[in-house]
Design goal:
Structural class: mainly alpha
Strand order of the largest sheet: 1-3-2
CATH topology of the largest domain: Four Helix Bundle (Hemerythrin (Met), subunit A)
Number of helices: 9
CATH class of the largest domain: Mainly Alpha
Low-confidence stretches: 1-11
Helix content: over 70%
Radius of gyration: 19 Å
Shape: globular
Order of helices and strands: HEHHEEHHHHHH
Largest sheet: 3 strands, antiparallel
Length: about 220
């Protein structure tokens, strides 16, 4: 892509900023940036082939959403690991995602439930083959296929914001989950509960699926505190 300049029309810069923002947000969700990773305006602009203006705006937006922190030298970083904070993020995720699931169960079509069944099998395969990138992407698709059917856009937006904040920490520990046979079955169990239209069970299983993060990071906070 040709190098863009800051003399471009404001509307174009705004659309570029949104594009950069969405791509960076996905990179955080997918664990492509790890805790304390540095994102400089110039390096990100070079990667996207854009001017610095839309990148600066996107990074500022992510900072206001607490996904990044800014430094005095105008660089940006993923927040360092704070186990207590991360535990709180997963606590919020578990409760809000459980609610979204309960709302979604009556609304999910047979076609979407079939898609969930395929995604459940694929995430299990990703773990078996050690495809962490594939797992993180398919895991997101599995969960948001459910939440996007909740009929509450504000709730889904809040949940996604929590995913952006917790993504780097999920990616950091996802390998250790391979040892849990129960964890690997949860997506299939969730799908079965949804297919049987069991709202309470589906909510409970989603909360269990997300709740490992609360437990893992609470334990880490105690050990490091």
């Amino acid at each position: 892509m040709a190098q863009l300049t800051e003399s471009r029309p404001v509307l174009l810069e705004a659309s570029l900023s949104e594009h950069v923002y969405q791509q960076l947000k996905w990179s955080l969700i997918a664990g492509q940036f790890r805790p304390d990773a540095k994102l400089s305006i110039r390096s990100v602009a070079k990667d996207f082939g854009t001017s610095t203006m839309p990148v600066r705006e996107a990074l500022k937006r992510l900072t206001s959403e607490r996904a990044l922190v800014s430094k005095a030298n105008r660089s940006f970083r993923v927040p360092k690991l704070d186990p207590k904070r991360v535990s709180e993020l997963f606590f919020l995720r578990a409760n809000l995602e459980g609610l979204a699931t309960e709302l979604a169960v009556p609304r999910l079509t047979s076609q979407k439930i079939d898609a969930l069944e395929q995604l459940a099998a694929q995430t299990n395969e990703d773990v078996s083959t050690g495809d962490k990138s594939g797992y993180l992407s398919n895991n997101y698709s599995f969960h948001f296929t459910i939440y996007n059917s909740a009929g509450n856009d504000e709730l889904v937006s809040i949940i996604e914001g929590l995913w952006v904040q917790s993504g780097p920490y999920l990616a950091d520990v996802v390998d250790v989950l391979e040892t849990s046979k129960e964890w690997r079955k949860l997506h299939s169990w969730i799908t079965e509960a949804i297919r049987s239209r069991s709202e309470k069970l589906a909510r409970e299983l989603i909360e269990r699926d997300i709740g490992w993060g609360t437990t893992v990071y609470s334990q880490l906070a105690r050990h490091t505190g």
